[in-house]
Amino acid sequence: MKKSGEILEGILRKRGISSEEDISEFLSDRPQKTYDPFLLLNMEAGVDLLLSEINSGHRICIYGDYDADGVTSICILSHVISMITDNFTYYIPSRFDEGYGLNKEAISKIKADGTELIITVDCGSVSYEEVEYAKELGLKVIVTDHHSIDDVRADCLLINPKQPECRYPFKELAGCGVAFKMVQAICRRKGLPKSVITDVLDLAAVGTVGDIVSLTDENRTIVKYGLNKINTGNRRALKRLAEAISLSVVTSEAIAFGIAPHINAAGRMSTAHEAAELFLTSDSNVIEDKVRKLVNFNKERKKKQEEAYNRCMDMISGNEDFIVLYMPDIHEGIAGIVAGKIKEYANRPTVIVTPSGDGFLKGTGRSIDKIDIFSLLKKHGDLFCRFGGHRSACGFLMAEENLGKLKRSLNDEIRYLKRNDSRLLDKTISWEMTISPEDVTLQLSKMLDKMQPFGQNNPKPVFRICGVIPSQVRFMGDNKIHAGFTAVSENGKRVDCIIFQKAQEKKKLLTDNVPVDIIGTISEKTWMGNTRVQFVVEEIM
């Protein structure tokens, strides 16, 4: 039997956290890893311009994106600007009519509204033409963003840690993280109280987790303090949303699988303004209305997502290395989620394309860990009218006639990569440590919880337990796709287990009364006031 502390230390060491100082920082309830906001390239000039425009009485427009990162970014920046002026507004483009990022029609509307300065959040880095158009109209533009940058970038004050010239120590901030750094910078410049910064930590945590950026370094600091703010703070909007979806304690997983999908559902099914207004209002009646709408949007999203996924599954040929599916009838708002589900199932990068009208197609893609989808599509930039994204996800607009060429080109790219890595597309089962049933204790579970928040680049630790026989197997749920069982080792040690979704697929291994290896995570379950530890099985072999 291993000691719980030794197991925790071993996991941290495997993740490159080995010095006493690094371990202390990583496990601390009050992490200190954060950086001067003025280290971000153009932050000083950006804050100076913003404050100058405000002092001149000019109208400001915050231009964002329609996902959880974009919505929280707008609300974060709105909070600090509202401390200085009320002469500002925000704009979120329609996913369906405008698509991601800046567009000229929106810029014209913003100009007509009397705006003098546009400040983008979570978008705009590669919007060269749109920024030039804004400048032609006499608008000033500040871009704050975190997405990958290609050779053509917006010619304005660009604040993005991924700029090659930017010396900011941490490159993986979310869009809301960059907005949060601007709040810090504005507060320092204006001498605003620290509470203005801490007031938006909860929103920064939601956007950071929701955008699936790395939960390491400064993001870990933001999310740790943000989660504490959510669970102890008084933001009624977040409290009511959490209550509506039965969250008693909000963790990073609760954000990833509960809160963020409900925020995203507004932009997917209707308009992201519904989500933004939830966090911008103090009216309790409006909050109740918006929460109800977000819950209904998410129910609708789930229904349409399942229907679309089943249709896509019927279309997969099985011989494509890069899956490109033309789906004229799919709801555009859930194309990205379905692409992600197909990617998980097939272990192939996947793009779903939907008609955009006037002979154009919109595409949204998701990729596996080994393949940088942004870099692959960037090689074929001549096929796109608009294109953006990062390593694991992308979006684009293209002419219909280019679809066939895109399919061929992307499959050719993967075939070329497979020459150097024949197992590029093989599904891999990985774990961090092999343990025994007797190691799975409440004490270990509590120690592993210190590694929270879990998420991108800091997943929940995965363990392997070898040579156990499943006993007392109980199949559960619709179609008996889940199962609970007890895993018994050769020396008679036992651990309670549960497997979700795969029980029928693994039925033979569960019922043959022969030793198997199980791979999974450790969690706790509470029933009738009693808390017990269990092993959540992800794979049996």
From TrEMBL:
Q: Which family does it belong to?
A: Belongs to the RecJ family.
The taxonomy runs: Bacteria, Bacillati, Bacillota, Clostridia, Peptostreptococcales
Do the record's keywords include Hydrolase?
A: yes
The protein's superkingdom reads Bacteria
Q: Per UniProt, which keywords does this protein have?
A: Exonuclease, Hydrolase, Nuclease
Q: Domain DDH, which positions?
A: 59-208
Q: Where is the DHHA1 domain?
A: 320-414
Q: Which NCBIfam families match?
A: recJ
What is a single Pfam family found in this protein's UniProt entry? DHH
> Which residues are in the RecJ OB domain?
433-538
Q: Does the keyword Hydrolase apply?
A: yes
Q: What is this protein called?
A: Single-stranded-DNA-specific exonuclease RecJ
Species whose genome carries this gene: Lentihominibacter hominis
Give GO terms: molecular function aspect only: 5'-3' exonuclease activity; nucleic acid binding
Checking InterPro entries in the record gives: DDH_dom, DHH_sf, DHHA1_dom, RecJ, RecJ_OB, SSDNA_exonuclease_RecJ
Tell me the Gene Ontology biological-process terms attached to this UniProt entry. DNA recombination; DNA repair
